[in-house]
Amino acid sequence: MTSITLHRFGGAEREELAAKERALDEILGSLGRTMIAYSGGVDSAFLLAAAHRALGSRALGVIAKSPSLPAAELEDALATARGLEIPVRVIETRELEREGYRANGRDRCYHCKTELFERLTAMASEEEWETLAYGAVTDDLGDDRPGMGAARELRIRAPLLEAGLSKWHVRLLARRMGLSTWDKPQAACLASRIPHGSEVTAQKLGEVEAAEAWIRRVHRVRVLRVRHLGASARVETDPADIPRLTAALPEIRRELARWGFLDVVIDPEGYRRPDPLPIEPQEDISNVQRG
User: Fold this and answer.
1) Whole-structure pTM value
2) What is d(CA 197, CA 199) in angstroms, rounded to the nearest whole number?
């Protein structure tokens, strides 16, 4: 996990978090039959678990199977839901059939989320689900998130955001809830490894997926991005893991050549997106009362 941040969880923070969680429960309880766009990441997993807690059988997770989602991520997401005994449905999305997505401009996520949310909207209409929701948090407001525009256009609710919950809040609450995803590193679709302006293809997505799967399996790194630069690749990982990946670079180059990467470099600065991880004593978390 990159950029680990230590926090002191005092009384004022406990009260604030308790108020936000009460607000979340009230929001979820008012949604009626709700479909949750689920990816297996910490935000969507917590939202799905919280919705199931509030709504029971009136909450359903839906995860999209597509070339942009690693098969291992799909399997892990389904295993997480099974462990929680929460129903999740798998649908297939076809964002690669959308010209705007393949063109890979800075609005790529808009086209991807539009594909997903339009599919969910059609399902909700056919099956009489009252609400669609996804796991945006307050941190997302400071980023360039074209997918949030698609959510607004199609009236997809964001209960975590509406309750004022940040990524850090979600990690705290997910840990208290006992979710295995509470400390899961941030993830992004495989298309994010392809530079803007370079066409997204199923072949490129497959090459990135295979390369990352091999590095994870052999070198046991949690934070990883293999940036697809045509015939070359740039590997980003947690700064703490850079020395051992650098030492293994000859082997990595030999293996990644199998997927068309004729040159491979290890980014000396590592993966740089901040991802605060709460490291409070467990009693600080358990003392947050939900009122």
Assistant:
1) 0.90
2) 6
Q: Please report the pLDDT score of residue 119 as a whole number.
A: 97
> Around 271, how many Cα atoms within 13 Å sit in the side-chain half-sphere?
25
Q: Which residues pair with 224 in a beta bridge?
A: 237
pLDDT, tens digit, 9 for 90 and up, residues 231-267: 999 999 999 999 999 999 999 999 999 999 999 999 9
184 to 29, 135, 181, 236, 278: CA distances (angstroms)? 27, 15, 5, 17, 12
- The 8-class DSSP code of residue 142 comes to G
Cβ contacts of residue 287 below 8 Å, gap of 6+? 14
Provide the total of helices (H) and of strands (E) in the chain, helices listed first.
12, 7
Sign of CA dihedral 215, 271, 204, 209: positive
